[in-house]
Amino acid sequence: MSKFRPSGGYRTTCSFQTATIIYDATYWFCEKFLDARSRTVDQMVQAARSGRQNIAEGSRAAATSSQTELRLLNVARASLEELLLDYEDYLRHRHLPQWKPDAPEALAVRQVPREFKQVRPHQSDLTDLTDHERWALYARWLEHTEPAVRANATICLIHQANYLLDQQIAALERAFIEDGGYSEQLATARLAERQRKKNQPDPSHPPDHIPNCPQCSKPMVLRTAKTGKNAGQQFWGCTAYPDCKGVVKL
User: Fold this and answer.
1) pTM of the prediction?
2) Is 55 within 8 Å of 168 (Cβ atoms)?
3) Strand (E) or helix (H) holding 175
4) H or E element: which one contains 195?
5) DSSP secondary structure code for residue 212 in this structure
6) Burial of 248: CB neighbours in 10 Å, binned 0-12, 13-18, 19+
């Protein structure tokens, strides 16, 4: 039997793949430019890791709980927001410039996926690449000798990941409102199956008498209502239908 609700598959999502680049970039940034004994290092690495890991955990939780999936994605979003502030603080405390959204450098980072499609049109997007191949596309910034370049490039990627997570969260919220959570969907499916079995005739106990139509006296046949308040329920219908609309309830 297939899963009632899909789960997993997070490794091919843009949000998880972007969060992976952010985590790796943060780990190596802290290793190179911050004192390993600093509490900030632990906080930044843990925030980057939380952003990535909670996307994965939320995807796995989708099979049994919409609310848990939403909660974990919001945790991932909050962790990346915390990391964003840490990078901004790093630049501000050292009087280093932060790229404006429309700065050429920031635009260049954001243009990577579009440029990739132009150069390699046979591949749909960056999700088809390995982690190493995706990193290589951003290596000119994330492996730069200047910490300001690395920090600013990572800030751009965090904004991208946050945008993707916002879209995921909004879509999940809409689905939850329209379709209900896992428990509600499971209960609905269970009730539908019970009703189906209830309406299904028992082959071991066939009707022992086929009535004649009360209107024209012709033999009747067992039918199932397709619409209306009795949809799914069986009844005896006249074999002369539609000329005769005589019915007899079971």
Assistant:
1) 0.71
2) no
3) helix 147-179
4) helix 182-199
5) B
6) middle
